[in-house]
UniProtKB/TrEMBL annotation:
The lineage of its organism: Bacteria, Candidatus Yanofskyibacteriota. It comes from Candidatus Yanofskybacteria bacterium CG10_big_fil_rev_8_21_14_0_10_36_16. It holds the Pfam family B12-binding. It comes from the Bacteria. This is B12-binding domain-containing protein. NCBIfam families: acid_CoA_mut_C (TIGR00640).
Length: 385
């Protein structure tokens, strides 16, 4: 088993220190019940879990690992190709980062293949009979990797070249409150006037992440590079499940797209206190479009507008009547209001109510995040704000 430096932790927004774990289903494996049970158990044990979803290739697993700069990679597979999935993932990570990442695995894996997996660099394989407590305790005791230190100037040069690992590592240091990281951030260039920072907010479950997926698709067709900051809420356990990027799975291997998940432990304008620094890093990487998604927002997140150039409030039919609109809050600060799920029967009524309430002072768009209907109009509205 590989030995790593113990106690390299991270913190998002000044809250409890946590370990960040990526959990994915590798290969042609569509069974997710088991991994969702493990995801919840790890969250309840105080870990931050990036849920990468089903059918993940080694290339996708490696891309998520690097962008999120996770502490531990967990791969579950029932596909029969476990040797290939693990070996290729380890190979890609080594090539791209010159680093060995702590890796654990599970699923349907023959016991007689475990020695070969450990030899190639897998730290632990769990069989279906494993108690979840055993997994939790192993991760808690795992010695995590010590990243190489480099000069401030070297880090800045790598980020200006668009190097993903350098940017992701700096984001983690920012989350930890590292003083050297703060100095590096202060030396990065300010955002270009041409960079468009788009805020996507609204109540939970309205389809913000799925809408962002379609926006990325549209911007990439325009040959624009895209950075995404996706904020999820913390659980009462102080752990978190960060699942927004699963809606953006289409773009996981696109080198022109950088997706970073963050946890809202301390409310800062609907996101976290580290968000402005992460925006600046993405800007230094020369991302043309930077999209910031809040955790499921309520009426209190009106300060979010200060962080972005264009604020999009996403709603769906049936979330309230005209009295709710009168209460105001974050929706009042939006440049654009989107009525998502436009295929629902009540969407037209919601659309008309919003137009009447705001008396044509705001752009109101109807979209369907699944089909892409209305996305072109929304992109045009974003560009003219």
């Amino acid at each position: 088993m590989h030995q790593f430096k113990k106690g390299i932790w991270r913190v998002s927004g000044g809250g409890k220190l946590t370990t960040k774990i990526l959990l994915v289903k590798g290969g042609l494996d569509g069974h997710d019940r088991g991994i969702q049970i493990v995801t919840k158990a790890l969250r309840d044990s105080g870990f931050d879990v990036i849920y990468g979803g089903l059918y993940c290739s080694p290339e996708e697993i490696a891309a998520i690992t690097i962008q999120e700069n996770v502490d531990v990679v967990g791969i579950s597979t029932h596909s029969g190709n476990h040797l290939g999935i693990f070996s290729e993932t380890i190979k890609i990570l080594k090539e791209k980062t010159n680093t060995h990442w702590p890796i654990i695995g599970g699923g349907i894996i023959p016991a007689n293949d475990i020695p070969a997996l450990e030899k190639m660099g897998v730290d632990k394989i769990y069989l279906p009979s494993t108690n979840i407590t055993e997994i939790v305790e192993f991760i808690k005791g795992l010695k995590l990797m010590k990243r190489k230190k480099e000069s401030q100037q070297k880090t800045i040069e790598r980020i200006l070249k668009g190097e993903v690992f350098a940017a992701a590592s700096l984001m983690s240091l920012v989350e930890q409150g590292d003083n050297n990281a703060k100095k590096i951030i202060s030396k990065l260039p300010d955002l270009s006037p041409q960079t468009i920072v788009v805020g996507i907010t609204g109540f939970g479950g309205v389809g913000k992440s799925t809408l962002i997926n379609k926006l990325i698709e549209h911007f990439r067709k325009d040959r624009k590079t895209v950075g995404v900051i996706a904020c999820d809420p913390v659980s009462v356990s102080r752990g978190a499940v960060m699942g927004d990027r699963i809606r953006m799975k289409d773009h996981a291997q696109d080198e022109g797209v950088f997706i970073r998940s963050i946890v809202q432990r301390q409310n800062f304008k609907g996101v976290t206190p580290t968000t402005p620094s992460i925006i600046k890093i993405l800007g230094a990487m020369k991302k043309d479009i930077i999209i910031v998604e809040t955790a499921g927002a309520g009426q209190e997140n009106s300060g979010f507008k200060d962080l972005v150039k264009v604020l999009v409030w996403v709603s769906v039919p049936g979330l309230g009547d005209k009295i709710q609109m009168l209460k105001g809050g974050g929706i009042e600060t939006a440049n654009i209001i989107v009525v998502n799920q436009s295929d629902k029967a009540a969407s037209y009524l919601t659309f008309q109510d919003l137009k009447e309430h705001f008396e044509n002072t705001k752009k109101i768009c109807k979209t369907n995040s699944l089909t892409g209907e209305g996305i072109s109009e929304l992109v045009k509205a974003i560009k003219v704000v």
